[in-house]
Amino acid sequence: MTGRPVAPTRVLFVCLGNICRSPTAEGVLRDLLAREAPRLAVDVDSAGTADYHIGSAPDPRSQRAALRRGIDLSGLRARQISRDDFQRFDFVLAMDQNNLRELKALCPRKPRAQLGLFMSYAPEAGRLDVPDPYYGGDSDFEAVLDLTTAASRGLVTALQQRAE
Fold it and tell me: What is the set of active-site residues?
């Protein structure tokens, strides 16, 4: 051990508008890290591929669903991904295949970030996409929480292994 502080791993979650899925994933991962892996150095953020909601708080339905599980999303604000994000983050994780395609199109030639699908960290879920709950009901927002929790657990395990 050198005694030098370890640079945090930087994770960016990305969905379309950054008001439902990606801020939920951000909140879930932050909560899980605080409770179950507080010594793991991880910075977490979220963004959208579109500019629809820049500066907006997460969807009230996302906030209510998360709050029922003790996760407060109210301080988060939507932003659009930038080309700089591909150099600032270690992982840029899309909520679905459409957004992953958009990310690949925006990505510079030699990114620092590893691009992928967030659900790849929860193979037991049997799906690659976190479905967009925007036009759905309360159960759709609960499903997003369930899926992002499963993927966050897998991501924490992967990050712990990476830190060893």
Answer: 15, 21, 132
> At residue 153, what are phi and psi to the nearest 5 degrees?
-60, -45
- From 91, 102, 110, 108, select the one nearest 156 (Cα to Cα): 91
Give the Cα separation of 83 and 104 in Å (integer): 11
| pTM for this model (two decimals) | 0.96
Distance separating alpha carbons of residues 125 and 73, to the nearest angstrom: 24
In terms of Cα–Cα distance, which of 17, 33, 19, 9 is closest to 149? Answer: 33
Instruction: Pick the closest to residue 143 from 107, 104, 101, 95 (CA basis).
Output: 95
CATH topology of domain 14-163: Rossmann fold (3.40.50)
pLDDT tens track for 64-102:
999 999 999 999 999 999 999 999 999 999 999 999 999
Four-CA torsion 34, 11, 95, 64, nearest 10 degrees: 30
Q: In the β-sheet with 91-94, what is the strand arrangement from edge to edge?
A: 42-48, 9-15, 91-94, 114-117
DSSP state letters, 67-109: HHTT---TT----B--TTHHHH-SEEEESSHHHHHHHHHH--S
